[in-house]
# Entry
Amino acid sequence: MKNHSSFLRKYTVALTVLVLVLIFTFTSCQAKTTELEKFLNRIEIQYEQISIELGTAYWNFYSGEGDADLVTPKNKYYTLLINDTLNNYIDTWYPKRSEISDTILRRRIEVWHNTLLSAKVEYNAEVMKLRNELEEMLKVTDENNNKTDNFSGKMLLLIQLRNKKAQELGFENYVHLSFENNGLGYKWFTSFVENLDKATLEPYKALVEKAKTEKQITQFDQRSAFQFVGMFYANNTPPEPEKRNIDLVKESLANIGIDYTNLPSKLVEKQLPEGVGGQGIMLNIPYDFRAVMTLGMDISVWMHEMGHGLHGLYNSINSPILEGYEWIPGNSTPAFSEGMAETSAGFTQNTEWLKKYTSLTEEDIQNREEIINTYAPAFIRYHLSNFMKEMELYLNPDKSYEEIQKDVARKYMLIETDDIRTQELKNIIYVSYPLYLQNYLIADIIAGQVHQAMEEKFGTDYAFNKETGNYLQQFYKGGEYFTWQQRMVNGTGKELDVNAYLKRYNIK
Ligand SMILES: [Zn+2]
# Structure
């Protein structure tokens, strides 16, 4: 008995000590996180202020509405992002973030971690200087007297520099760092590319053989490949509707219960740098969206840019870093942002929408769908070749861009002739949005999946259901608080479903 009671006493003392230690640890952890939170709140106010300044400068850069001073806000970002206290906080808390019970604070640390990592490359003084110089060369000016001498040489230098900085940070090269940070993951991405390559190869080969027979040619050429892709786009783009683009944007939104006139949004038309169809910018999330479309763009481009607007304007998360400004690659998930833009553009491919706003009949629409399915393997492989040719520049720095383009054309488009037309390296997207192009293919998959979910929820008339807009808002409101995979699951019940995508085009 005695022994027993002594044991019990010792046990009680031990237990009390343990509880005290736990309470102490908990309160001290809480005190530290409160301090962290206060610090981040302060930094994020500054971060947002600079983001707004840079967004305004980029707006001027594309729209030509005012003087585009990209350098001053970028320098301010630089000063903010190399702040030792900020970096120390994030370096300390990121590995033990699972201890933080406040899930918003935990997510802020994750997104800050990604943002700081990519800033170490993109906002490195050397990279920034070169990038500024290249952007200046491509700026839209009234005089159109941009000096673009040796653009390619400087672009190659920028690629080398990005690789070098990534290696200094412990990555194999810039591709690995970038995919670590863009929400996709390099491993996921390579298997995604392999999967699509494999699934589309046989149907694409069949198209190639058919074209060769019909044209009586022995070697498949680039012109024929472009014709395939052209057929896809011609049938996937709505014929010119009667209404003006801006009015049709307003009406399409009104149809799903979104009142455009209440949105702080502005859409304009102006000549843009080569290769850019439209540029939508959230200057201030969620209060100020503007987009500029280059001349002669069809309604799907307008709806795409408006989709970027909806994504930002319905963001209601109360933390600037989770609002997802696009100016530092690690801060947002561009594949998902493009997915939201394409979801909006997707209304212009909807059967009921086409019947109402274009001259197409039900039968025309069905015929178009058949053609789209026929040429979808070419469309997918065209996308693969398009982003792989940029990626190869980083993965194989010893290969010339010309050589890369030819190899990629042979591998993905199955070009058999030696006569392969190549392009110059001069591309604003390579400068300002490195390794971005895969997002457009992923966007097509996301949009298809969301439209499928809307049809299941609201029926075939969902493009004219006032509840549809409400449904879409769930994708927008949390910003970067949820990962993009979580957002897909929350909205459509599953993560990105590539097999369903292939089935939609009758590929699998
Ligand atoms: Zn876009």
